[in-house]
Amino acid sequence: MEAVEWFSWSNLFYLIGLILAGYASAITAKNRNIFVQIQELVDVLEKANRDKKITAAEKKQIVKEGLDIGKAVIQSKWKLW
Length: 81
Known about the structure:
By secondary structure, this protein is mostly helical. It has helices spanning 2-6, 9-30, 32-49, 56-78.
């Protein structure tokens, strides 16, 4: 009879919440490199936009960061290297 006390709606919702939180953590950990690369791009864009003029060197850096994001997406999807 005690085992039945564990089966309740609140425990079911708690279990579902734990499963979803674990899944979200796994997805975030897998794609962490993408988020890091996006943050680096945002930092470069902020730095380049401070003086309202973007130089050729800053354009190169922005393109490099964009390519790094693409590389991170490909790596997370297919784990090539």
